[in-house]
Write a structure and sequence with these properties.
Two copies of one chain form a homodimer. The first copy, chain A, has 200 residues and is an alpha+beta fold. Chain A has seven helices and four strands, in the order E-H-E-H-E-E-H-H-H-H-H. In chain A, a hairpin with a 5-residue loop joins strand 3 and strand 4. The longest helix of chain A is centred in the middle third of the chain and has 31 residues, at 84-114. Chain A is globular, with a radius of gyration of 17 Å. Chain A binds chain B through residues 48-49, 61, 63-69, 71-72, 75, 84-85, 87-89, 91-92, 94-96, 98-100, 102-103, 137-138, 141-142, and chain B through 48-49, 61, 63-69, 71-72, 75, 84-85, 87-89, 91-92, 94-96, 98-100, 102-103, 137-138, 141-142.
Amino acid sequence: VRLYDNSSSGNAYKVRLLLALLGVECERVEMDIDAGATRTPRFLAMNPNGRIPLLELDDGRHLAESNAILCYLADGTPWLPVERWARAKALQWMFFEQYSHEPYIAVSRYILTHLAADSPRRAELERLAPRGVAALEVMDRHLATADWFAGDAHSVADIALYAYTHVAGEGGFDLAPHRHVRAWLARCAARPGHVPIDGG
Amino acid sequence: VRLYDNSSSGNAYKVRLLLALLGVECERVEMDIDAGATRTPRFLAMNPNGRIPLLELDDGRHLAESNAILCYLADGTPWLPVERWARAKALQWMFFEQYSHEPYIAVSRYILTHLAADSPRRAELERLAPRGVAALEVMDRHLATADWFAGDAHSVADIALYAYTHVAGEGGFDLAPHRHVRAWLARCAARPGHVPIDGG
């Protein structure tokens, strides 16, 4: 498979991390998002929504949306729960990640790490911060009673949430008050096959 | 099953619509979101993220996130594609809906229909509008070549996208330029068992 990728994107890292854990090779095509590489006619023909990560199968079909790609690649492996309730909970947490977590934590990180220090978008940080903290609190509350997000095993839900949570500090978020989250991050990173976000 | 619900919420409507199409009865508990009903300690004990819809099974377990609820309830029915690629595409469009569609189209509708005419949040509309139009354009481009969003049948992906698209006008969006979207909305509404958003 080929992955239209960006080395600093947590959404793309989700896919790289799962592929590493599965031991599957992929061809990475680094896309310069800031230079508009995902808005060219050629790229929009592959993904009209103009975003990475984008998975390209060997037969030329394309799949977008990081969490949909995770579910597709994990299908038939231990990373996607088979049991109906555990699979439902995996999806619940993956939708939580895209709606209540990523738009605050990842966007804060993007503003602080990709934009100039005098960017007008810095004004957004004040609105984003409490919502990002709220997402971390929801995660911490869950992890006070469970080791993983779906069922009793490390799954695609943990991969999806790990991606931006472990770099939340780059978005200005302090993980110190969220001790269950910190312990879970360590469990995730200890998994054989784990790779860092910038790890090639 | 019991559904913690809100009659004007498109996210809750998704669940009501699928249950109606499946012919499954549910007990609806109307939650007054504007009065903080989803932020009480009792509700947060059921869903720490403080949102409806929330599904309660007969054994007391709870499932949050509208699109995860759709997948759970549709599992084993024709509404959730069994074929791997069609299921991947259903999830792709459902994540698109929550990330690139709902935050613009549903939020614009909320501001215009739930908040006072002099709400300072009206200032957000200008930023939301082009992104909502972009989502409608992505949908229209897909529907120019296909009748449905995943595989060749009406599925949970169509239900998820129908919910806020068919009331996009209430958010200030004009569907006239998106003729494939309008034809698809009519196909969805013609389905036996279809119920309107405010239809009890």
